[in-house]
């Protein structure tokens, strides 16, 4: 399916990746709370056009060993007039599994890690691990009273798709 990634605005300036992200129609958002109203309007516009938006509601990357609490701000656009009754949210768990000879957090990218060297390390490994994609039951937006309730339901579904050892909350 045609989906549009949602990414922090800084990615647009990254060499190579920024160009590709722009080329594919990525929605770039500012993580400044003062821009929340503008971000909501951009989301609503894209959703009203029928675009499917893919975003990571944790708001940051991790070591891949846990699911962080979801931030609910971007869920607000789903409750707009004309969208709330027709939209569904598809929670998806991504489980990265490193080759047995690598550290379990091998694919994770977090904290102050430099992206370029990390990407090169991942691309250079001789034996690849795997990524398991788990699609959960879609959530009808109108079945949830608020963005926070919808975000919580999506977080619980995603957390449930992780191996038991990775279901811990931070």
Please give a structural write-up.
The protein is an alpha/beta fold and 170 residues long. Helix content is 26%, strand content 15%. The chain contains 4 helices and 7 strands, in the order E-H-E-H-E-E-E-H-E-E-H. The strands form 3 sheets. The chain has a 3-stranded parallel sheet, with helices on one face. A two-stranded antiparallel sheet has the order 4-7. Strand 1 (4-8), helix 1 and strand 2 (27-29) form a beta-alpha-beta unit. The model has no long low-confidence stretch (mean pLDDT 91).
Descriptive labels:
170 residues; alpha/beta; three-stranded parallel beta sheet; two-stranded antiparallel ribbon; 4 helices; 26% helix; globular
Topology:
Elements: E1 4-8, H1 17-23, E2 27-29, H2 36-48, E3 53-54, E4 88-89, E5 92-97, H3 115-124, E6 130-135, E7 139-140, H4 147-160
Parallel strand pairs: 1-2, 1-3
Antiparallel strand pairs: 4-7, 5-6
Biggest sheet overview: 3 strands, parallel
- First-to-last CA distance: 33 Å
Oligomer: single chain
* H/I helix tally: 4
Could you provide a short overview of the structure?
The protein is α/β, with parallel strands linked by helices and 170 residues long. It is 26% helix and 15% strand.
């Amino acid at each position: 399916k045609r989906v549009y990634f949602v990414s922090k605005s800084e990615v647009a300036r990254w060499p190579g990746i920024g160009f590709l992200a722009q080329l594919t129609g990525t929605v770039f958002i500012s993580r400044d709370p003062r821009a929340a109203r503008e971000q909501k309007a951009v989301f609503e516009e894209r959703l009203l056009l029928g675009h499917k938006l893919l975003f990571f509601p944790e708001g940051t990357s991790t070591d891949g060993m846990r699911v962080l609490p979801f931030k609910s701000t971007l869920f607000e656009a789903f409750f707009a007039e004309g969208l709330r009754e027709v939209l569904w949210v598809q929670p998806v768990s991504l489980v990265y599994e490193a080759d047995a000879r690598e550290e379990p957090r091998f694919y994770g990218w977090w904290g102050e890690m430099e992206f370029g060297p990390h990407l090169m390390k991942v691309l250079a490994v001789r034996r690849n691990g795997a990524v398991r994609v788990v699609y959960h039951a879609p959530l009808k937006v109108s079945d949830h009273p608020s963005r926070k309730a919808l975000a919580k339901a999506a977080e619980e579904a995603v957390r449930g798709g992780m191996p038991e050892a990775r279901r811990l909350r931070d």
